[in-house]
Predict the 3D structure of the following.
Amino acid sequence: MPFTFLMLPPQSETTRAWAARLAAAVPEAQVAVAETEAEAQAAIAGADAAYGVPTPGLLARAARLRWLQAPQAAPPAGYYSPELVAHPAVVTNMREIYNDHIGAHILAYVLAFARDFHTYLPLQAQRTWRPRPLDTGVIHLPAATALIVGLGGIGAEAARLLAAFGARVIATDARRTDCPPGVAALHPAEALDGLLGQADFVILTVPHTPATEGFMDRARFRRMKRGAFFINIGRGRTTRLDDLVAALRAGEIAGAGLDVFETEPLPAAHPLWTLPGVLITPHTAGYGPELDERRFGILVDNARAFAAGARLRNVVDKANWF
């Protein structure tokens, strides 16, 4: 079935190249590239499908729009506007392309904490040789429990890697009911509070949604083991950083590995930069090769499915943002 596909602004060399490749790969698609908001305004009324970030003004004119491909796995706050949630268009996202890269990043945090690197890295910067007493500061992974909060593709890959190192992996998820390899027990999202105290590592991979905004707060940090580590590679707005700082200063948890933050970049004066036991990466957990090709692969798969009237990949529950 022929259809009109609109690439929404802003454009880059990558999206312009994708437009040409998409037109060649999916002959049914008449691909248009809008370089400006004005061009998008003129073209959106005739578009059956689109890629990018639609403004409320564009959505008001998008009477024919039936499919929107979001450019990210978890678009930033505000993407799922009331206008988009109310619009009849189906939204798909780019989830599953980061599983291996972010799974490795999670494992790097776990291994660093398990082998006490958070103690020795600051000493290295000071050129100080100060080994801790024997058997101090080490977590033996075959005797440890990791709690993964959000068992999508990233969480499942992290579970597989952690289990290979001998850790017992438990998880919560709002949708999933099957246990993937490496997961000893899967619980509904509502069971989180009762599981926090079991874990040596609490690992957040959940997206930012109305249900998860700020849900890791002081009360939940207090439910964790005092020797446990908190890791967040999902979205920064799931975790109240003031509460995390308070929990670290009070010794309620042992440390934190953070790739995402409520405010990004993390302000230079923020106490997390210098708190003991904190490892920080600047929202780079998803970095790795082939990401643009993986994104384009999802775009092409969905364009072909749309042309055939088949099921799209990665359909989003717009009201819940994922």
